[in-house]
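Input set for joint prediction.
Command: fold jointly, output tokens.
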Amino acid sequence: MADIDPQIARGTPASGSTPGVTTGPIRGSRKIHVGPLKVAMRAIDLEPSSGEPPLNVYDTSGPYTDPTARIDIMSGLPELRRDWIRARGDVEEVAQREVRPEDNGQLGPDRSASAAARSGNRNGGVQPFPNVRRTVLRARAGANVSQMHYARRGIITPEMEYVATRENLGREMLREYTRDGESFGAAIPDYVTPEFVRDEVARGRAIIPNNVNHPESEPMAIGRNFLVKINANIGNSAVASNVASEVDKLVWAIRWGADTVMDLSTGRNIHDTREWIIRNSPVPIGTVPIYQALEKVGGIAEDLTWDIFRDTLIEQAEQGVDYFTIHAGVRLPYIPMTAKRVTGIVSRGGSIMAKWCLAHHKESFLYERFDEITEIMKAYDIAYSLGDGLRPGSIADANDEAQFAELYTLGELTHRAWKEDVQVMIEGPGHVPMHKIKENMDKQLQVCGEAPFYTLGPLTTDIAPGYDHITSGIGAAMIGWFGTAMLCYVTPKEHLGLPDRDDVKTGVVTYKLAAHAADLAKGHPAAKLRDDALSRARFEFRWRDQFNLSLDPDTAEQYHDQTLPAEGAKTAHFCSMCGPKFCSMKITQEVRDFAAKQNAPVETFVAAEEAEAGMAGMSKLYNESGRELYMGAGGREHD
Amino acid sequence: MADIDPQIARGTPASGSTPGVTTGPIRGSRKIHVGPLKVAMRAIDLEPSSGEPPLNVYDTSGPYTDPTARIDIMSGLPELRRDWIRARGDVEEVAQREVRPEDNGQLGPDRSASAAARSGNRNGGVQPFPNVRRTVLRARAGANVSQMHYARRGIITPEMEYVATRENLGREMLREYTRDGESFGAAIPDYVTPEFVRDEVARGRAIIPNNVNHPESEPMAIGRNFLVKINANIGNSAVASNVASEVDKLVWAIRWGADTVMDLSTGRNIHDTREWIIRNSPVPIGTVPIYQALEKVGGIAEDLTWDIFRDTLIEQAEQGVDYFTIHAGVRLPYIPMTAKRVTGIVSRGGSIMAKWCLAHHKESFLYERFDEITEIMKAYDIAYSLGDGLRPGSIADANDEAQFAELYTLGELTHRAWKEDVQVMIEGPGHVPMHKIKENMDKQLQVCGEAPFYTLGPLTTDIAPGYDHITSGIGAAMIGWFGTAMLCYVTPKEHLGLPDRDDVKTGVVTYKLAAHAADLAKGHPAAKLRDDALSRARFEFRWRDQFNLSLDPDTAEQYHDQTLPAEGAKTAHFCSMCGPKFCSMKITQEVRDFAAKQNAPVETFVAAEEAEAGMAGMSKLYNESGRELYMGAGGREHD
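tokens >
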């Protein structure tokens, strides 16, 4: 993306695959905007023969799937929340901190920034985002701009109203609220009011991550009593990828359902890459600031300092990052607890902090300086994602002493952050066999005051690299059912390499289905609407409806067409699995038709007594046709 | 496969993809044969630097992965069990029933067999298996050749000994038997003795499916107290596939781990296809005889008769089918219970029987004639797989009245079969949301006397066609944990079309990882050995070992090489996910090396008091180097 071609920057229709981003509606879906806040959703229209209204589904894809939107990734998205933020009157404009070469990993030969500046090479050939704002927002002195602060003062913000409408979309279709699930003590309401959202945020049981400098974001909530959310990870590494790929992956990930995206870049051009991403993202963006801080000291963990870290927090806060992963629980006394582990410390941030602590023989500066970090968070409304630096990276290490020691510290820090009305979520494992998953949820609820839990899987076995989206999809579905609020995806490339865009899609769809399976099991009152609509379409051979209602209509149709591509097959009452004679759904329909022709309601068609009386008569009818049947009525006598 | 080229029939090395079957070792594995019965397994050799012995793993791939075996699919596999069967002296040779055109779906224009014979077209161009035996075995008059019969008479057969060795393979590596799991009351032993196998089979809690006419099979057990097993489905349909593809899929499926295979063909050449499959299968083969019976009556369910069905049972029994799915629980009074369902009856066999029952207004002949079916089963040692014809095919229908009514009947039939010492397993659902899964297991255990449970998934949501191997992998892992003995795979093509060989592999590996996750969670004493070995290899950057220990070494290596293909990368201490600076595993090793250099055991490196005393001194060291550090010891004072 050295020089961005404006035509490419305006997006590529969904059928294209040139550099740029994928635009255009998802097959079968129509973008709608609901209510005075014009909350974005999708409507799936069904065939008239179904007699069913359109099904509305939650939508994370942003303006990219809106055919009326003008997409220009060089300009970024519209600032949806701008007026709401300013109307609160508690922010001021400040000059943005100047971007330095080391922010983009540019260091001179002696690894100093000045050497890089002298060499005149800003950023190794990558174009900075062309429309960087010269001023950014920050809380006025003494103000706290976090949604939790407003919520605790009884204020219902437009963001909370947006969330309520978004979370309600399915419920409006229900005529009655029946509950069929096991939520393990969650408090999922029949109907989500803005007041309910306010109360959940005030309690800390939900967060609405949205930095005042990310006005492009469509507000969303992460919390046990809302729909289970998923996160996709993007970002380059020193070995692979570039800015164009990362923006493309962002848009691709949200197209398929990612509720938030983390930019985990660890390579070059971290600052500029992030700017392109945030400006073009309708979903909250998370980061792990320690990565960029490490780049600034040339990769030498021991050289990290509080000042560099603090400066990095400001840099990223001004760009608009919505949540920071902070590994403040990797405390010096805990590090030796990992000595006997099979896979030690698998978290990048955790291992960096562990190295720093041991090298300096000092307590973690993230822990020591936590209250100062909190002051920064509240000036921009950035949420904490308290990192699980000591999470288990193998089945052998699951639920060990190191892991839970850190969890207890995260609980302590949650309450410290809440004293300042700063939003918090808690990161979780990892690799955990199924029988140990619930313990994680129970402990986290107990220790962290019901702050939202945000797990990575967990993977339920180590033996299937190449399939870790599945080994972890199992654990994710289960821990989502038990109460986890957001599930961080895992792609097929986990443990093996950096994911490409196909891997991103596979990871996202896998985690969407896991999150939905959790919603169903929790008894979310509206979750089942989509399953039922799809199953009715399946039963009635409305193939297009079945595809359009599914999480990935393109793949569903493609798989069907591999063996039955003809257009006529889309209304055929069979598929290639069984063919026309054996299709059980077709036969079931014949059974129902037959029963109906007998002019009896199928339900009462064969009451036990009637059956015995009638069977002999009916058998006689058949015998008259000359067919020989060895059939007994009730097993007692033969005709 | 109209004329089989003998060279192709001898197999194709694993790198090939020409018509034929895939042979050659699985990457990194070495075939071994253990004990006096030469039980087949695989050994995975690890790099010398690991200091670890080879890891033995359970192996279903048969002689195809044995480089010393001579493969000739025109001759079939060696008759492993031949002498054991004959030595029992309770079988006699009989002339095989003659194959008729209608056995291969050949009917004349008036749908009669004679017309087909007159037309001289035996089987539409497919070559019958060239080495069909002219005589087959059957129990002598009055004898019962089922493994359950022997077990109940206190006899330990060679089959039971084989099973014990196979199930023990990992346990021999354990120095101690620690249990870490939750088995919900299962009785998994520390060590599997042949006596334990006998007892489980005698109780009906496990089955060893092996027809006396399938002597090529390597004995295996299906039961809650053994390793969780998986089944793969193959078979053509009227719309797709051919014999060559099906034999190839068989060998491909067992290569990747299928413990049994069901031939669900519903198209042409059912008899000949099955002969090719059984003669070349080292794993038990299951079928659903009603499919072939339906083909014989030209697809008209109402024309099915007991005689045709019985004849089909004999035909298939003589070929060597090891278990039959019999939908004897689809009883006439239950059919109306499906009327209100969203997806009616989704089982092919179930819908066929429902159609028959309603058309004739009679009780199912499978139910009425059950005892006569049992007489056939015991003459060949064929196990019942009591079919779940009324299983739910959508989330909406899960755990409904029809489903459990059938389950109660299956319980009744289990006890009737056991009266005759005939082996039984029970088929299960289907589509079940997570919160309803355990109820299925609990009811089945209660009602069916702990007969092994054999479920299809279950799928935990309906909304992801194209990904149903995953929606069902979640449910399968969970129900396997709860006690299900065998999991029937689901491929990405479920609901959309017939699976190809890639789909077969994806389905098999998905179900292998789900079964293994279940073994881990149940606390199988040896399951964790493989996870631990792989995680150690991962941590030590023994990339080749990591790939070789995984369920799919080819894919793991391929994914790694997509971004780091160079040979040197196979020993590199990073991959493209994070690159050299950020690899947490590399950093963890550095942390351990650093701690070791301090000449202190890492475990006691920083005891709390020592830390406080030592920190000030260490900080002083760093300060002397001139670096400015705002670091506090314990957060209280700055140097």
